[in-house]
Amino acid sequence: xxxxxxxxxxxxxxxxxxxxxxxxxxxxxxxxxxxxxxxxxxxxxxxxxxxxxxxxxxxxxxxxxxxxxxxxxxxxxxxxxxxxxxxxxxxxxxxxxxxxxxxxxxxxxxxxxxxxxxxxxxxxxxxxxxxxxxxxxxxxxxxxxxxxxxxxxxxxxxxxxxxxxxxxxxxxxxxxxxxxxxxxxxxxxxxxxxxxxxxxxxxxxxxxxxxxxxxxxxxxxxxxxxxxxxxxxxxxxxxxxxxxxxxxxxxxxxxxxxxxxxxxxxxxxxxxxxxxxxxxxxxxxxxxxxxxxxxxxxxxxxxxxxxxxxxxxxxxxxxxxxxxxxxxxxxxxxxxxxxxxxxxxxxxxxxxxxxxxxxxxxxxxxxxxxxxxxxxxxxxxxxxxxxxxxxxxxxxxxxxxxxxxxxxxxxxxxxxxxxxxxxxxxxxxxxxxxxxxxxxxxxxxxxxxxxxxxxxxxxxxxxxxxxxxxxxxxxxx
Amino acid sequence: xxxxxxxxxxxxxxxxxxxxxxxxxxxxxxxxxxxxxxxxxxxxxxxxxxxxxxxxxxxxxxxxxxxxxxxxxxxxxxxxxxxxxxxxxxxxxxxxxxxxxxxxxxxxxxxxxxxxxxxxxxxxxxxxxxxxxxxxxxxxxxxxxxxxxxxxxxxxxxxxxxxxxxxxxxxxxxxxxxxxxxxxxxxxxxxxxxxxxxxxxxxxxxxxxxxxxxxxxxxxxxxxxxxxxxxxxxxxxxxxxxxxxxxxxxxxxxxxxxxxxxxxxxxxxxxxxxxxxxxxxxxxxxxxxxxxxxxxxxxxxxxxxx
Lengths: 477, 306
Hints:
heterodimer; A: alpha+beta; Porin; 16-stranded antiparallel β-barrel; 4 helices; 42% strand; B: alpha/beta; 2 domains; four-stranded parallel sheet; 46% helix
């Protein structure tokens, strides 16, 4: 009986459920149909839109419409134009002339193309700097030429691969590898610079960390191929060595918000320089400082003044301090591409503590008197002028320069002076040739006369060829 | 007494200067790399902005000397408007020396005005510097075409609104009003140029392609054989022959180009050198953006009608 009742209840329930399921299925079917219709409508809409856009692209590519009042929407997603704007057309201008005509004299360019793609995430460039020199035999014997050990040779002085760009929104980096002939027949490759600059520090400050050419004076931060003359000024070579002051550490700059330019710099470095600083330890650091200001006289030119200091320890852990002052003036008439006249100069003063040892009369290898501290005061300076008097035409590619050097030797007695006139020829911004003559006169040789040679009076004929391949950032003033 | 008068005058002057400084402090400080962009930014920003330009109108904007005085301007800027397309790459060195985090690459205070424009003369084959100092991403002189103003001002508007969001409605109203005035002027310029449409001209530097294309003129050739490199005698001989053969009577010349050379070519061909305003303020009478285009349109139309 119970089973019978159960079956009746189940049957009734099922009979009631059939119409409900049928209704639901019908509703779903209808919904599906509506969705299908909506989808078809959307598809039609998109197809029409795509066709319309394709037609417009074809029209633009084949022949721009002559009417200037055809509004073309900006394709930049980053620059949404307000919808209610006057119908000044942005592109697709022109009229009767065909694009073939327009493009004809300008191959390999074409009109109305999208921008280049596949750009690198950083810039890279190669510079090549070759130098040749001819001098007397006795100078070569004494290795007393401007390029010591490379006299009467044409050689690659600096082939540089530079990579630079933004690391992220906060910092940029630059890395430079250099190759060059440092000794006769011996080409070496080295890491010249590798540093990062933090660009978004507060209160107008920036920090640069890594291996870098120190911002000391006018020419030390400049690479060989960018120097305004063939060789580094004598005082820089004497006081800091052939490579100049290149250190690992950190530099901090502050540009205060003033109505005129003032840049203050402070740096801390290991102190690893072949001549001036040799502690190579942060326990005996090299500290640097620089102040730079600038006066813009508009059509009358511009003047930059700077003062620098570098104070550290020699390899003997004795204090060495070098202070410098520099000035640069450029006169660039209004509308000129290059400076008509450039005048610049730099003076360095060194206060160097040394241990002076007495003679070894008995020859036992031990000085007769113990080492006694002594302070050396050394001075050196250079000044140069360059004239590029023609604004246009073939002669505008030529410039004439003259540099005067005078410097004492940092550790040995004596001094040297030099004059070096030179002629530059720049067929383009990326290619330059220089021909120069340099006469150097020394009160005595720095140290000894090597190999029995003499280099008191040196006459040199210098040749330089420089090229730039790829990216090269603009040079500061 | 004299001291008292002097002190009083100095105080008044000091107060005046302080008031001016306070007023300027309320404004958005913008630096534009060119005078064209300065003018367009002023048109959008109106009284709410204080705009300075790095290059002067009569300077060649390709290769500006990076003076520290430019860094002073950028040091205080809230917004930097750049031309882009590698015309003003020198500005990156200015930015690096300005120590202003608001305008470094990727910062909100930076506007690339070329975003979204249809760039002309994009190289389609491999390019290198044997072709001269070419622009590998296309011709960057788009501001000389007034038809580009909607896109350029839209970019500027977005930049201004990023640093001063509350003023967006004012910037939008200013822009709309400016584009309205420009639209009227464009109708006038188009009518002025209609009779000379299709005429062929020679240029000294490849600066005018956007302007010429806008008004339906043809650039037949260039005095510069390759950008940034002085022309060879052979090229000049060929150019003179083409100009004579095709009866080209107009040479468009920018203020920073070699006018004497253009005059020499003109003498040999019977053509006329037309000094053009290569930017706002480049020539007398081209002191605003509309004036600049007006000046160029009138100069070209008049020369071609003669």
